[in-house]
Write a structure and sequence with these properties.
Layout: H1 17-24, E1 41-49, E2 54-61, E3 67-75, E4 86-89, E5 99-102, H2 107-119, E6 125-129, E7 141-144, E8 151-155, E9 159-169, H3 173-183, E10 192-198, E11 203-210, H4 218-231, H5 244-264, E12 268-270, H6 272-292, H7 300-315, E13 320-322, E14 334-337, E15 340-343, H8 354-358, H9 364-384, H10 394-421, H11 431-452, H12 458-469
Helix pairs in contact: 4-9, 4-10, 5-10, 6-7, 6-11, 7-11, 7-12, 9-10, 9-11, 11-12
Length: about 475
Protein backbone atom coordinates (compact mmCIF):
# COMPACT_ATOMS: atom_id res chain seq x y z
CA UNK A 1 0.00 0.00 0.00
CA UNK A 2 1.36 3.43 -1.01
CA UNK A 3 0.50 6.46 1.09
CA UNK A 4 0.87 9.89 -0.48
CA UNK A 5 2.68 12.58 1.51
CA UNK A 6 0.54 15.28 3.07
CA UNK A 7 0.06 18.51 1.20
CA UNK A 8 -2.66 20.60 2.83
CA UNK A 9 -1.87 19.49 6.39
CA UNK A 10 1.88 19.27 6.10
CA UNK A 11 2.72 22.63 7.67
CA UNK A 12 2.01 21.69 11.34
CA UNK A 13 4.48 18.79 11.20
CA UNK A 14 7.22 20.19 8.96
CA UNK A 15 8.86 22.42 11.64
CA UNK A 16 9.08 19.40 13.95
CA UNK A 17 10.87 17.05 11.55
CA UNK A 18 14.44 18.21 12.40
CA UNK A 19 13.75 17.26 16.04
CA UNK A 20 11.96 14.01 15.24
CA UNK A 21 14.65 12.58 12.97
CA UNK A 22 17.40 12.09 15.62
CA UNK A 23 14.88 11.24 18.37
CA UNK A 24 13.27 8.52 16.29
CA UNK A 25 16.60 6.72 15.94
CA UNK A 26 16.84 6.34 19.72
CA UNK A 27 13.52 4.49 20.03
CA UNK A 28 13.53 0.74 20.64
CA UNK A 29 10.76 0.39 18.06
CA UNK A 30 12.78 2.08 15.33
CA UNK A 31 13.66 -0.73 12.91
CA UNK A 32 16.97 0.64 11.67
CA UNK A 33 18.49 0.95 15.16
CA UNK A 34 21.03 3.79 15.15
CA UNK A 35 20.88 4.29 11.38
CA UNK A 36 19.58 7.51 9.79
CA UNK A 37 15.85 8.00 9.35
CA UNK A 38 16.79 9.32 5.87
CA UNK A 39 14.27 12.05 5.20
CA UNK A 40 11.03 11.85 7.17
CA UNK A 41 7.82 12.50 5.28
CA UNK A 42 4.51 13.03 7.13
CA UNK A 43 1.67 10.97 5.67
CA UNK A 44 -0.78 11.59 8.55
CA UNK A 45 -1.02 14.72 10.71
CA UNK A 46 -3.98 15.37 12.99
CA UNK A 47 -4.03 18.16 15.57
CA UNK A 48 -6.17 16.56 18.27
CA UNK A 49 -5.87 19.57 20.61
CA UNK A 50 -4.55 23.00 19.62
CA UNK A 51 -4.23 24.86 22.93
CA UNK A 52 -1.54 24.07 25.48
CA UNK A 53 -0.83 21.32 26.14
CA UNK A 54 -1.27 20.56 22.44
CA UNK A 55 -1.64 17.02 21.14
CA UNK A 56 -0.54 16.05 17.64
CA UNK A 57 -1.01 12.64 16.05
CA UNK A 58 1.23 11.83 13.09
CA UNK A 59 2.45 8.94 10.98
CA UNK A 60 5.87 9.46 9.41
CA UNK A 61 7.50 7.62 6.54
CA UNK A 62 11.27 7.14 6.29
CA UNK A 63 13.24 7.01 3.07
CA UNK A 64 13.06 3.21 3.00
CA UNK A 65 9.25 3.30 3.20
CA UNK A 66 8.83 2.24 6.85
CA UNK A 67 5.96 3.93 8.72
CA UNK A 68 6.17 5.14 12.32
CA UNK A 69 3.33 6.44 14.47
CA UNK A 70 3.94 9.22 16.98
CA UNK A 71 1.76 10.94 19.57
CA UNK A 72 3.42 14.27 20.26
CA UNK A 73 2.84 16.82 22.99
CA UNK A 74 3.74 20.51 22.89
CA UNK A 75 3.96 22.89 25.85
CA UNK A 76 5.39 26.40 26.26
CA UNK A 77 7.21 25.04 29.31
CA UNK A 78 7.73 21.40 30.18
CA UNK A 79 7.09 20.52 33.84
CA UNK A 80 9.87 18.61 35.64
CA UNK A 81 7.76 15.44 35.79
CA UNK A 82 7.92 15.25 31.97
CA UNK A 83 11.61 16.08 31.59
CA UNK A 84 12.41 12.52 30.52
CA UNK A 85 9.86 12.72 27.69
CA UNK A 86 11.42 15.82 26.05
CA UNK A 87 12.33 15.67 22.37
CA UNK A 88 13.50 19.24 21.83
CA UNK A 89 12.55 22.91 21.47
CA UNK A 90 10.70 23.97 18.33
CA UNK A 91 12.52 26.74 16.45
CA UNK A 92 9.91 27.78 13.88
CA UNK A 93 6.24 27.55 12.97
CA UNK A 94 3.12 27.97 15.12
CA UNK A 95 4.80 26.31 18.14
CA UNK A 96 8.06 28.22 18.02
CA UNK A 97 9.72 28.24 21.44
CA UNK A 98 7.54 25.40 22.73
CA UNK A 99 8.95 22.06 23.84
CA UNK A 100 8.10 18.97 21.81
CA UNK A 101 7.78 15.74 23.81
CA UNK A 102 6.49 12.15 23.84
CA UNK A 103 2.77 12.53 24.59
CA UNK A 104 2.18 8.99 25.88
CA UNK A 105 4.12 9.99 29.02
CA UNK A 106 1.68 12.83 29.78
CA UNK A 107 -1.42 11.68 31.69
CA UNK A 108 -3.22 14.92 30.87
CA UNK A 109 -2.86 14.40 27.13
CA UNK A 110 -3.74 10.71 27.34
CA UNK A 111 -6.96 11.83 29.03
CA UNK A 112 -7.53 14.22 26.11
CA UNK A 113 -7.00 11.33 23.73
CA UNK A 114 -9.54 9.10 25.49
CA UNK A 115 -12.18 11.85 25.39
CA UNK A 116 -11.43 12.43 21.71
CA UNK A 117 -11.89 8.74 20.92
CA UNK A 118 -15.09 8.58 22.97
CA UNK A 119 -16.62 11.49 21.06
CA UNK A 120 -15.97 9.86 17.70
CA UNK A 121 -15.08 11.65 14.49
CA UNK A 122 -15.51 10.98 10.79
CA UNK A 123 -11.95 11.95 9.90
CA UNK A 124 -8.60 11.90 11.65
CA UNK A 125 -7.77 9.60 14.52
CA UNK A 126 -10.83 7.60 15.59
CA UNK A 127 -11.87 4.33 17.16
CA UNK A 128 -13.95 1.70 15.40
CA UNK A 129 -15.91 0.07 18.20
CA UNK A 130 -16.33 -3.70 18.58
CA UNK A 131 -18.35 -3.68 21.82
CA UNK A 132 -21.16 -1.46 23.06
CA UNK A 133 -19.45 -0.54 26.33
CA UNK A 134 -19.13 3.27 26.57
CA UNK A 135 -15.57 4.49 27.00
CA UNK A 136 -15.30 5.70 30.61
CA UNK A 137 -13.63 9.06 30.00
CA UNK A 138 -13.07 9.80 33.67
CA UNK A 139 -10.50 7.03 34.16
CA UNK A 140 -7.01 8.14 35.20
CA UNK A 141 -4.39 7.39 32.48
CA UNK A 142 -1.06 5.77 33.29
CA UNK A 143 1.63 4.91 30.72
CA UNK A 144 3.29 1.50 30.83
CA UNK A 145 7.05 1.94 30.78
CA UNK A 146 8.13 -1.62 29.97
CA UNK A 147 10.59 -1.99 27.08
CA UNK A 148 8.55 -3.18 24.12
CA UNK A 149 8.04 -2.67 20.40
CA UNK A 150 4.74 -0.79 20.93
CA UNK A 151 3.47 1.68 23.51
CA UNK A 152 0.63 1.15 25.98
CA UNK A 153 -1.46 3.39 28.21
CA UNK A 154 -3.63 2.06 31.03
CA UNK A 155 -6.89 3.78 31.98
CA UNK A 156 -7.83 3.17 35.60
CA UNK A 157 -8.07 -0.54 36.28
CA UNK A 158 -10.28 -1.26 33.27
CA UNK A 159 -8.78 -0.48 29.87
CA UNK A 160 -5.50 -0.76 28.02
CA UNK A 161 -4.76 1.29 24.90
CA UNK A 162 -2.08 -0.30 22.72
CA UNK A 163 -0.43 1.95 20.14
CA UNK A 164 1.29 0.30 17.18
CA UNK A 165 4.49 2.22 16.56
CA UNK A 166 5.00 0.59 13.16
CA UNK A 167 1.44 0.57 11.79
CA UNK A 168 0.31 -1.77 9.05
CA UNK A 169 -2.64 -1.74 6.65
CA UNK A 170 -5.59 -3.85 7.78
CA UNK A 171 -6.68 -6.46 8.38
CA UNK A 172 -4.25 -6.47 11.29
CA UNK A 173 -3.29 -9.87 12.69
CA UNK A 174 -3.75 -9.07 16.39
CA UNK A 175 -6.96 -7.10 15.90
CA UNK A 176 -8.45 -9.82 13.72
CA UNK A 177 -7.47 -12.55 16.18
CA UNK A 178 -8.68 -10.74 19.30
CA UNK A 179 -11.93 -9.76 17.62
CA UNK A 180 -12.65 -13.40 16.78
CA UNK A 181 -11.71 -14.56 20.29
CA UNK A 182 -13.91 -11.83 21.81
CA UNK A 183 -16.85 -12.91 19.67
CA UNK A 184 -16.24 -16.51 20.78
CA UNK A 185 -16.16 -15.36 24.45
CA UNK A 186 -12.77 -16.97 25.03
CA UNK A 187 -12.04 -16.72 28.77
CA UNK A 188 -8.26 -16.87 28.25
CA UNK A 189 -7.79 -13.62 26.32
CA UNK A 190 -8.69 -9.95 26.89
CA UNK A 191 -11.89 -8.57 25.38
CA UNK A 192 -11.37 -6.23 22.41
CA UNK A 193 -13.33 -2.95 22.58
CA UNK A 194 -12.15 -1.12 19.50
CA UNK A 195 -9.55 -0.47 16.82
CA UNK A 196 -7.69 2.80 16.20
CA UNK A 197 -7.89 4.02 12.61
CA UNK A 198 -7.36 7.24 10.72
CA UNK A 199 -9.37 8.43 7.76
CA UNK A 200 -8.52 7.27 4.26
CA UNK A 201 -5.25 5.41 4.95
CA UNK A 202 -6.38 1.88 5.76
CA UNK A 203 -3.78 1.79 8.54
CA UNK A 204 -4.51 -0.02 11.80
CA UNK A 205 -2.97 2.20 14.48
CA UNK A 206 -3.80 0.41 17.73
CA UNK A 207 -6.50 -1.20 19.82
CA UNK A 208 -8.40 -0.82 23.07
CA UNK A 209 -8.85 -3.93 25.20
CA UNK A 210 -9.65 -4.98 28.74
CA UNK A 211 -6.88 -4.43 31.27
CA UNK A 212 -6.30 -7.82 32.85
CA UNK A 213 -6.04 -7.86 36.67
CA UNK A 214 -2.54 -9.32 36.94
CA UNK A 215 0.36 -8.37 39.20
CA UNK A 216 3.20 -8.95 36.77
CA UNK A 217 3.47 -11.51 34.01
CA UNK A 218 4.54 -15.14 33.84
CA UNK A 219 8.13 -14.23 33.05
CA UNK A 220 8.56 -12.03 36.11
CA UNK A 221 6.99 -14.60 38.42
CA UNK A 222 9.02 -17.46 36.98
CA UNK A 223 12.35 -15.60 37.20
CA UNK A 224 11.72 -14.66 40.85
CA UNK A 225 10.76 -18.24 41.66
CA UNK A 226 13.87 -19.62 39.94
CA UNK A 227 16.11 -17.26 41.89
CA UNK A 228 14.54 -18.15 45.23
CA UNK A 229 14.60 -21.88 44.65
CA UNK A 230 18.07 -22.03 43.15
CA UNK A 231 19.30 -19.95 46.09
CA UNK A 232 17.68 -22.47 48.42
CA UNK A 233 15.46 -19.87 50.12
CA UNK A 234 12.20 -21.14 48.61
CA UNK A 235 10.38 -22.60 51.60
CA UNK A 236 7.35 -24.14 49.95
CA UNK A 237 8.85 -26.28 47.18
CA UNK A 238 12.03 -28.28 46.59
CA UNK A 239 14.90 -26.32 45.12
CA UNK A 240 14.69 -28.28 41.86
CA UNK A 241 10.92 -27.98 41.61
CA UNK A 242 8.55 -25.07 42.01
CA UNK A 243 6.21 -23.43 39.57
CA UNK A 244 5.10 -26.80 38.18
CA UNK A 245 1.42 -26.32 39.09
CA UNK A 246 1.55 -22.95 37.32
CA UNK A 247 3.32 -24.48 34.31
CA UNK A 248 0.75 -27.27 34.03
CA UNK A 249 -2.14 -24.77 34.26
CA UNK A 250 -0.45 -22.58 31.65
CA UNK A 251 -0.21 -25.53 29.30
CA UNK A 252 -3.94 -26.13 29.72
CA UNK A 253 -4.70 -22.44 29.05
CA UNK A 254 -2.66 -22.45 25.84
CA UNK A 255 -4.46 -25.60 24.67
CA UNK A 256 -7.80 -23.90 25.39
CA UNK A 257 -6.86 -20.86 23.30
CA UNK A 258 -5.66 -23.11 20.48
CA UNK A 259 -8.97 -24.98 20.55
CA UNK A 260 -10.92 -21.71 20.29
CA UNK A 261 -8.71 -20.47 17.47
CA UNK A 262 -9.32 -23.73 15.60
CA UNK A 263 -13.06 -23.15 15.97
CA UNK A 264 -13.08 -19.57 14.67
CA UNK A 265 -10.42 -19.73 11.95
CA UNK A 266 -9.94 -22.30 9.18
CA UNK A 267 -7.73 -25.30 9.81
CA UNK A 268 -5.67 -26.72 6.96
CA UNK A 269 -3.92 -30.03 6.42
CA UNK A 270 -0.30 -29.47 5.44
CA UNK A 271 0.84 -31.40 2.40
CA UNK A 272 4.35 -32.90 2.09
CA UNK A 273 5.23 -29.97 -0.17
CA UNK A 274 4.04 -27.52 2.49
CA UNK A 275 6.26 -29.16 5.09
CA UNK A 276 9.19 -29.26 2.70
CA UNK A 277 8.81 -25.51 2.09
CA UNK A 278 8.55 -24.93 5.83
CA UNK A 279 11.77 -26.88 6.43
CA UNK A 280 13.48 -25.04 3.57
CA UNK A 281 12.52 -21.74 5.19
CA UNK A 282 14.04 -22.91 8.46
CA UNK A 283 17.26 -23.81 6.66
CA UNK A 284 17.33 -20.46 4.90
CA UNK A 285 16.94 -18.65 8.23
CA UNK A 286 19.67 -20.85 9.70
CA UNK A 287 22.10 -19.95 6.92
CA UNK A 288 21.35 -16.26 7.36
CA UNK A 289 21.88 -16.57 11.10
CA UNK A 290 25.21 -18.36 10.64
CA UNK A 291 26.44 -15.45 8.52
CA UNK A 292 25.46 -13.00 11.25
CA UNK A 293 26.38 -15.12 14.30
CA UNK A 294 29.56 -17.09 13.52
CA UNK A 295 29.23 -19.09 16.76
CA UNK A 296 26.33 -20.95 15.14
CA UNK A 297 28.53 -22.33 12.35
CA UNK A 298 29.71 -25.39 14.29
CA UNK A 299 26.09 -26.45 14.82
CA UNK A 300 24.88 -25.72 11.31
CA UNK A 301 25.17 -29.30 10.02
CA UNK A 302 23.35 -30.82 13.00
CA UNK A 303 20.46 -28.36 12.88
CA UNK A 304 20.17 -28.70 9.09
CA UNK A 305 19.91 -32.49 9.52
CA UNK A 306 17.08 -31.94 12.00
CA UNK A 307 15.22 -29.78 9.48
CA UNK A 308 15.83 -32.36 6.73
CA UNK A 309 14.46 -35.10 9.01
CA UNK A 310 11.34 -32.99 9.58
CA UNK A 311 10.87 -32.62 5.82
CA UNK A 312 11.37 -36.36 5.23
CA UNK A 313 8.83 -37.18 7.93
CA UNK A 314 6.36 -34.90 6.20
CA UNK A 315 6.99 -36.64 2.90
CA UNK A 316 5.97 -39.94 4.51
CA UNK A 317 2.46 -38.54 4.83
CA UNK A 318 1.83 -37.87 8.51
CA UNK A 319 -1.34 -35.92 9.30
CA UNK A 320 -0.10 -32.41 10.15
CA UNK A 321 -2.79 -29.82 10.81
CA UNK A 322 -2.14 -26.10 10.85
CA UNK A 323 -4.26 -23.25 12.17
CA UNK A 324 -4.11 -19.69 13.51
CA UNK A 325 -1.72 -19.63 16.46
CA UNK A 326 -0.27 -17.01 18.80
CA UNK A 327 3.00 -16.89 16.89
CA UNK A 328 5.29 -15.38 19.56
CA UNK A 329 4.36 -17.25 22.70
CA UNK A 330 6.53 -16.95 25.80
CA UNK A 331 6.10 -16.42 29.53
CA UNK A 332 5.95 -12.63 29.12
CA UNK A 333 2.79 -13.04 27.01
CA UNK A 334 0.99 -14.94 29.78
CA UNK A 335 -0.67 -13.13 32.71
CA UNK A 336 -1.72 -14.87 35.93
CA UNK A 337 -5.14 -13.48 36.90
CA UNK A 338 -7.70 -14.52 39.54
CA UNK A 339 -9.52 -16.35 36.72
CA UNK A 340 -6.37 -18.23 35.69
CA UNK A 341 -3.79 -17.70 32.97
CA UNK A 342 -4.63 -15.35 30.10
CA UNK A 343 -2.65 -14.76 26.90
CA UNK A 344 -1.92 -11.37 25.33
CA UNK A 345 -0.14 -9.81 22.32
CA UNK A 346 -1.26 -11.81 19.29
CA UNK A 347 0.94 -9.99 16.76
CA UNK A 348 3.35 -12.86 16.10
CA UNK A 349 7.12 -12.46 15.82
CA UNK A 350 7.67 -8.84 14.73
CA UNK A 351 10.62 -9.76 12.47
CA UNK A 352 8.44 -12.03 10.30
CA UNK A 353 6.52 -10.62 7.31
CA UNK A 354 2.85 -9.90 8.03
CA UNK A 355 1.58 -12.49 5.54
CA UNK A 356 3.74 -15.19 7.13
CA UNK A 357 2.57 -14.27 10.64
CA UNK A 358 -1.07 -14.52 9.57
CA UNK A 359 -0.64 -17.92 7.91
CA UNK A 360 -1.75 -21.20 9.46
CA UNK A 361 0.95 -22.92 11.52
CA UNK A 362 1.19 -26.16 13.50
CA UNK A 363 0.31 -25.54 17.15
CA UNK A 364 3.71 -26.97 18.07
CA UNK A 365 5.22 -23.64 17.01
CA UNK A 366 3.61 -22.01 20.05
CA UNK A 367 4.50 -24.94 22.29
CA UNK A 368 8.15 -24.71 21.24
CA UNK A 369 8.18 -20.99 21.97
CA UNK A 370 7.03 -21.60 25.53
CA UNK A 371 9.61 -24.34 26.03
CA UNK A 372 12.32 -21.89 25.04
CA UNK A 373 10.90 -19.37 27.51
CA UNK A 374 11.31 -21.80 30.42
CA UNK A 375 14.97 -22.19 29.50
CA UNK A 376 15.37 -18.41 29.41
CA UNK A 377 13.64 -17.97 32.77
CA UNK A 378 15.98 -20.48 34.39
CA UNK A 379 19.06 -18.63 33.13
CA UNK A 380 17.61 -15.20 33.94
CA UNK A 381 16.91 -16.39 37.49
CA UNK A 382 20.56 -17.39 37.81
CA UNK A 383 21.68 -13.99 36.53
CA UNK A 384 19.48 -12.21 39.07
CA UNK A 385 21.35 -13.92 41.92
CA UNK A 386 24.49 -11.89 41.21
CA UNK A 387 23.29 -9.13 43.54
CA UNK A 388 22.93 -11.56 46.45
CA UNK A 389 25.76 -12.36 48.85
CA UNK A 390 26.20 -16.01 47.86
CA UNK A 391 28.97 -18.57 47.97
CA UNK A 392 30.83 -17.85 44.73
CA UNK A 393 33.10 -20.89 44.65
CA UNK A 394 33.10 -22.98 41.45
CA UNK A 395 31.29 -25.81 43.25
CA UNK A 396 28.51 -23.52 44.47
CA UNK A 397 28.05 -21.98 41.03
CA UNK A 398 27.83 -25.45 39.49
CA UNK A 399 25.18 -26.54 42.02
CA UNK A 400 23.08 -23.46 41.26
CA UNK A 401 23.41 -24.04 37.52
CA UNK A 402 22.26 -27.64 37.94
CA UNK A 403 19.28 -26.56 40.03
CA UNK A 404 18.29 -24.00 37.41
CA UNK A 405 18.54 -26.61 34.66
CA UNK A 406 16.43 -29.02 36.71
CA UNK A 407 13.85 -26.25 37.22
CA UNK A 408 13.60 -25.72 33.47
CA UNK A 409 13.29 -29.45 32.71
CA UNK A 410 10.64 -29.98 35.37
CA UNK A 411 8.49 -27.05 34.22
CA UNK A 412 8.86 -27.82 30.52
CA UNK A 413 7.49 -31.28 31.28
CA UNK A 414 4.66 -29.86 33.39
CA UNK A 415 3.67 -27.44 30.63
CA UNK A 416 3.60 -30.24 28.04
CA UNK A 417 1.52 -32.44 30.34
CA UNK A 418 -0.99 -29.66 31.00
CA UNK A 419 -1.27 -28.95 27.29
CA UNK A 420 -1.92 -32.60 26.43
CA UNK A 421 -4.34 -33.15 29.34
CA UNK A 422 -6.47 -30.20 28.21
CA UNK A 423 -7.10 -31.78 24.85
CA UNK A 424 -4.31 -30.19 22.85
CA UNK A 425 -2.10 -32.16 20.49
CA UNK A 426 0.12 -34.35 22.65
CA UNK A 427 3.61 -32.94 21.98
CA UNK A 428 5.18 -36.21 23.15
CA UNK A 429 3.69 -37.88 20.08
CA UNK A 430 5.44 -35.42 17.75
CA UNK A 431 9.02 -35.09 19.05
CA UNK A 432 10.64 -34.43 15.67
CA UNK A 433 8.58 -31.38 14.59
CA UNK A 434 8.68 -30.05 18.16
CA UNK A 435 12.51 -30.16 18.13
CA UNK A 436 12.57 -28.54 14.68
CA UNK A 437 10.38 -25.64 15.82
CA UNK A 438 12.38 -25.25 19.01
CA UNK A 439 15.62 -25.12 17.01
CA UNK A 440 14.16 -22.54 14.62
CA UNK A 441 13.19 -20.40 17.61
CA UNK A 442 16.62 -20.78 19.23
CA UNK A 443 18.32 -19.71 15.98
CA UNK A 444 16.02 -16.65 15.87
CA UNK A 445 16.96 -15.89 19.49
CA UNK A 446 20.67 -16.14 18.70
CA UNK A 447 20.36 -13.45 16.04
CA UNK A 448 18.32 -11.23 18.35
CA UNK A 449 20.76 -11.57 21.25
CA UNK A 450 23.75 -10.98 18.99
CA UNK A 451 22.19 -7.69 17.87
CA UNK A 452 20.75 -6.42 21.13
CA UNK A 453 22.10 -8.33 24.19
CA UNK A 454 25.39 -10.09 23.37
CA UNK A 455 25.88 -11.21 26.97
CA UNK A 456 22.66 -13.28 26.65
CA UNK A 457 23.87 -15.05 23.50
CA UNK A 458 25.07 -18.19 25.38
CA UNK A 459 21.44 -19.02 26.29
CA UNK A 460 20.20 -19.75 22.74
CA UNK A 461 23.61 -21.15 21.77
CA UNK A 462 23.30 -23.81 24.46
CA UNK A 463 19.87 -24.76 23.14
CA UNK A 464 21.18 -24.97 19.57
CA UNK A 465 24.05 -27.17 20.78
CA UNK A 466 21.61 -29.52 22.56
CA UNK A 467 19.18 -29.70 19.65
CA UNK A 468 21.91 -30.26 17.07
CA UNK A 469 22.97 -33.41 18.92
CA UNK A 470 19.54 -35.01 19.28
Amino acid sequence: MTLAPLVGQRQPVAPLLPLLDPWLRTRRWYAAGAGPADGLTPVVADVVREQAPALLHTVLRTGDGQLYQCLLGLRPELPPRLAGAAIGQVTEGDWRGWTLYEATQDAALMGVLLRHLARGTDGGLRMQRTTRMPLPVGLVPRPLTAEQSNSAVVYGDRLLLKIYRRPEPGPHLEVETLHALTQARCPRTPRLHGTLLTGGTGLVLGLMEDLLPADGDGWQIAVRQVADCVDGTCSTVPATGGFTAHARALGAAVAEVHTTLADVFPRVRLTPDDIARQAAGMTERLDGAVREVPALARHRAGIARLYDAYARAGARGGAVLAQRVHGDLHLGQALPTPAGWQLIDFEGEPARPAAERAGAQPVLKDVAGMLRSFDYAARAGLRSLRARDLDDTPGARLRRARRAHAWAVRNRRAFLAGYADAGGTDPHCHPLPLRAFEADKAVYEAVYESRHRPDWLPIPLEAVHRLART
